[in-house]
Amino acid sequence: MSKRKAFIESEILELKTSLSERVEILESISAFSNKKGGKILIGIDPAGKVIGVTIGKNTVENLAGEIKIKTDPKVFPDISIIKIDSKDVIEIIVPEYPIKPVFVNDKVYIRVGRSNQKASAEKIRSFINEQRTRYWDSEISSVNLKELSAQKIKTFVMKYEEERETALEGSKLTEVILKKLKLLKGKKPTNAAVLLFSKDTQFNFYNSLIRCARFKGNEPIDFLDMQDTGGTIIEQVPAVLNFIRKHLNIAVQIKGKPEREDVWEIPKDALREAIINAVCHRDYESTANVQVRIFDDRLEIWNPGLLPNNITIEELKKEHPSVPRNESIARCFYMIKYIEQWGTGTNRIVRLCKEAGIKEPYFKEAGGSFIITFPRIVEEVTKQMKLSKTQKRILEFLSEIGEASTAELTEKLSIAPKTVHRNINMIKHLVEWTGKTTNDPTGKYAIKNNVDVSKMTE
Asked: How far is it, in rounded angstroms, from Cα 67 to Cα 56?
């Protein structure tokens, strides 16, 4: 039987014997937040011996509350109880915080080797100077406070409280909340407030909409489907994912009755991360839009704005610093867990694709935009999916006559139009639409050239 490796403190691991070391625990949270993140294990002594801790009814809640109260800006680490050698140990995972410095009890700490050191005045000034870069999203907008939606602000607060398991204390009046979120200057909303909560976001910032398109083939020439996604930048994320879902291959994995899971050919979480990155980090002073382009062989997300000068394309798949272009948006996205760890978005996208067993995405800059490209491997997805009897009948009929409209499929196969559309949608990786648009009355369905119907199984 192999011996468990001893716990050893490091730049990213701190060991604490018990909760009585509250002061040191808080210092470690500040230190990890100001560096590259880390983990605190409570219930293990400095020598690495597992002691365990006594867990009361509100132990975790009280600890989370104290961390929230005594950190500035407020930090929300992941706190959980784990078993090590059959003993309870509290695990606190602290991500690098997007905006530095993080104070605890009015002091700033940084992680140096295996210890927490109080930051010098020079180091604190350095942190602050880094944040003094001009942020367009923090500037005063020309929009009146009444043009913001109280309901959208309320929804944001509810999501924040649910995700972070904490209450936004004090008055829930719109103006008070915006001040707490640092989205109000005097009586005027900032640009970020407008993008996050406006009643009509595109009226104020038309370039904030996201253009989505499914092209025929592999060139951006003929449209099969197109959608301009408006609304606030929070609302845009699920809306864009819904558009993408219509044009990707989705397999259904049965995990047991009644549980089932949709498996996207490109991992949904990777796409979501890429969309959020584009919305959060784009250059809103550019007149260009975020674009989602879907082709037969790839999916591209175009984000107006180039990488910061101190980051190269090659570094995006490695550990790298993050320089937020939109500080206020990044902070608010962090509050509702749209982003979790800072500077790790591209790494997470790559990891999710690797775990799914598909090709890694690749990054480039062109035409003043940052572009992430996800290769599509339709043929591999096809092999993994079985056909229903109806789907095979549709394919056999198309194989026999070449092409057919919805009406022809309905008549020849004696099935309802809704059934035709539902089944065609499930095998759209095998079938192509010959119309110029999705609503083209002359359009028909045909089997793609590389599909061999005789090899399909029910």
From this structure: 18
